[in-house]
Amino acid sequence: LWGDNPITISLERYSWRANLVQYAQHRLLFEGYLQNQWSWYAGVILWKGQAPWPSLRGFVYDWYLEPNAAHAGMRAALESLDHLQVSAGACTGADAGG
User: What is the per-residue DSSP string for 15-52?
Assistant: First the structure.
């Protein structure tokens, strides 16, 4: 899998490997969050959902707004999540106890 000479590797193979790493990275990030949800963490924020320039990893969707392997990894990790908790009411100072 990783034993090829990096100078002679094809673009398709390099892209496939980058997607594999990105899929694993984002899936494990969210699986780790779900494992300790409400005991260690109350939420998770994913910074930089979109790439500011064409790149191969670190973003959920690419320069052309197409979802990539990170999106698939997040979807796979969060498929057991059955609902989201959202407060649609107005946030006032009284809600914060002040």
Answer: HHHHHHHHHHHHHHHHHHHHHTBTTTBS-------B-S
Q: What is the mean pLDDT of residues 26-51?
A: 82
pLDDT given for residue 66 in this prediction: 84
Other C-beta atoms closer than 10 Å to the C-beta of 9 total 12
Of 71, 18, 83, 69, the residue nearest 46 (C-alpha): 71
Which residues have CB under 8 Å from 94's CB, separation 6+? none
Q: How many CB atoms lie within 10 A of CB 52?
A: 8
Residue of 25 and 94 predicted with greater confidence: 25
Q: Report yes or no: 51 and 63 within 8 Å, Cβ to Cβ.
A: yes
What is the band of 27 on the pLDDT scale with cuts at 50, 70, 90? very high
